[in-house]
Amino acid sequence: MEEQLKEIIGGFIHLSPDEIRESTPIDRSVLKGSIVLHRMYAKLADAGIVVNNYQDIDNYGALLRRINGSEAVDGDNFLVQQSIPFSGNGVLASQKVSGIGIDIEEISALPRTHDFREHEFYKMNFSPSELAYCILKADPYASLAGLFAAKEAIVKADSRYRKAVFSSLEIDHLPDGKPVYPGFEISISHSPTAAVAVAVQIEPGQRTDASLQIGNTNTFQKSSGNWPVWVSIVALLIASLAIFLVLNHGLSQ
Fold first, then answer.
1. pLDDT bucket at 136, cuts 50 / 70 / 90
2. Under 8 Å CB-to-CB from 10, ≥6 apart: which residues?
3. Are 179 and 134 in contact (CB under 8 A)?
4. 17, 34, 74, 246: which could form a disulfide with 196 (CB 3.0–4.6 Å)?
5. Residue 187 phi/psi, 5° resolution?
6. 206 with 226: CB under 8 angstroms?
7. For 20-32, how does the pLDDT look when each residue is reduced to its tens digit (9 = 90+)?
8. Strands across the sheet containing 100-106
9. Does the pTM of the predicted model rise above 0.85?
10. Handedness of CA 145, 146, 150, 153 (dihedral sign)
């Protein structure tokens, strides 16, 4: 198994299997992006090497210890739902302060496929309803990159989501297309080559319903008006900066 493991990893970090040691880095700093990291573990899962909670693995030795210390599971059921405590109003329990996360992803980094529902990367990182929503868009890959960036932004806004399976972070949409996730205000934008997302965590009492009033935009707008002014200002500034960065990034290609 280790020979196959090194073969797959070597293809992503651009090393031959013989060059890979226990101290060899295999984290985001080497893989140049979160999407590529998730692609690598999807490739391992496709080969029958299932790794749960891999977000904190930084080198090959840590990966081996994680694999040797976990039980084998069915390849179709390797997505373990993480238990993140929610209060009755849909925000995280014991939440103290609001957090802000921002993420930019290259659209071209997403693996190409003829069937999103059967590809391991998309099964690991998106729910069936998210895939159904994006498949109907003019550019499914751009839409999926936007959702992926939003999930990363959520993790950056609240590190308690760090080990959450991405497919469990299901992002829904209001009738006007606005992306929503309980406990967060989300904004997504695209350039021709990249997607950017901002996630602003909302403190308890700043939102009235966990569903974000999906299907009732008037109620949603009313609840939004109760936010403190500083949260709205910060979100606007961060979103403006994000849009500037992604557009500038696209033009520089």
1. very high
2. 16, 17, 19, 20
3. no
4. 246
5. -135, 135
6. yes
7. 999 999 998 898 8
8. 100-106, 194-201, 184-190, 179-181, 172-173
9. no
10. positive
Per-residue pLDDT, averaged over 151-170, amounts to 92
Q: How far is CA 38 from CA 146, 148, 224, 228, in A?
A: 15, 10, 34, 36
Is there a contact between 246 and 189 (Cβ–Cβ < 8 Å)?
Answer: yes
Topology classification of domain 2-77:
1.10.1200
Cβ-in-10-Å burial (0-12, 13-18, 19+) of 193 comes to middle
Give CATH 3.90.470.20 domain extents, the chain.
100-251
Q: Which residues pair with 198 in a beta bridge?
A: 102, 187
Are 175 and 217 in contact by the 8 Å Cβ rule? The answer is yes
Residue 227 burial (CB < 10 Å; 0-12/13-18/19+)?
Answer: middle
Residues 6 or more apart from 161 whose CB is under 8 A from it?
Answer: 82, 84, 154, 155, 169
| pLDDT tens figures, 194-237 | 999 999 988 765 543 433 443 443 433 444 444 445 655 565 56
Write the CB contacts of 6 (distance below 8 Å, at least 6 apart in sequence). Answer: 17, 20, 60
pLDDT confidence band for 81 (50 / 70 / 90): very low
CATH code for 100-251? Answer: 3.90.470.20
Q: List all residues 6 or more positions away from 129 whose beta carbon is below 8 Å from its beta carbon.
A: 170, 172
The ranges of the chain annotated as CATH 1.10.1200 are 2-77
Q: Is 104 left (phi over 0), alpha (psi -120 to 50) or beta?
A: beta
